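During the second half of the funding period, the structural biology subgroup turned its attention to how the target accommodates small molecules. The most pressing case was pyridoxal-5'-phosphate, which had performed well in the primary screen but for which no bound structure existed. We therefore specified the complex as follows and requested a full 3D prediction, including the ligand pose.
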Amino acid sequence: MSKIIYADNAATTAMDDEVLEIYRDLITNYYGNSSQPYSFVRQNKIKLKEAREIIAKCINADPDEIFFTSGGTESNNWAIKCAGEQNKKKIITSEIEHHSILNSCEFMQSNGYQIELLSVNKNGIISKDDLINKLDENTKLVSVMMANNEVGTLEPIKELCEIAHRKNVIFHSDAVQALGHIKIDVKELGIDLLSASAHKFNGPKGIGFLYIKKDTKIYPFHDGGKQEKGLRAGTEDVASIFSMAIALKNNCDNVQQNTKKLLLLENIITSYLNKESIDYIKNGDIHHIPGNISLSFKNVSGEMLLHRLDLKGIMVSTGSACDGMDDQVSHVIKALNVPTEYITGTIRISLSKKNTEEEAKIIAKAIVEILKK
Ligand code: PLP
């Protein structure tokens, strides 16, 4: 494969080399079913225990509060559909959530639940007053993402959680874009549920977890065996689970160093665009996921830009990866009220610890060259 510049890390990341090696070894040698009683799977059980401990330490949880799932989508579906008191019929979330939240809410709505969407300001920050106004005795759950997947904005999770708890309502956060990229302490934030996905922090695809604070009301999403204390049935994928734990630890141990580097790379790109007098808006908030830059260029097609960059070997995205084939303006960009002449010219560049300063310069130059043509 010819060399590309991969700048779509909010869509997915490459696995760390060390993690890939661990994964290969485990998938080759630890293929036994961990539920069996024989000695061949003793190591599997140890790996599962260790993985739970490593992950718990990264987010300051207890190991028995970590429940393995197939990724962010499942964790989010599980929280929306199964958490909270079932006799309460209102779910509050925000208008800029990922579709694994919004579509689950739509499903709940078709089953008689009332869904309330919190509004955001032009930087993508969710309104606390809106939450105060919408919460009532009938609310089952509040779900607000920790970081937005398109513009990277970090939400005021601690305050939103406190507001929900004042009314004794369970608080869930989709931390798929945040975990491994910023420091997360579930005890300090006070949240009850947190969704995570390994492929967003250099781990394998198809694996993730739901943090469930002790004593939180939730019923199983999958029916079947007794895995995950009877809350999430299905044979454990030990190779993916343990690799996820190592990938998370690698990222959490280096958050500060990675943040510093990514802010530098962001600055290289935007400074060059400014120097070349390119007309654009930088979407999102100053408090955002390091390396995630959403840019809207005036009177430009984001699709055109994506394809021209692709021809130069540079991979970026127009909206969220899940909306990648859809050329309509994303619900997030619409919610931010990006001015009409900029709205269709939006691209997301999401850099990772693997990108270099040289690559950031090439990306910036390529954008300018395409736009000036
Ligand atoms: N939540 C957010 C914020 C995401 O960005 C994504 C993936 O893009 C998901 C959930 C879904 O995660 P997964 O791909 O692991 O199902």
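Two results from this model are relevant to the next phase. The chain has two domains: 5-14+254-372, 17-253. The CA atoms of residues 131 and 297 lie 33 Å apart.
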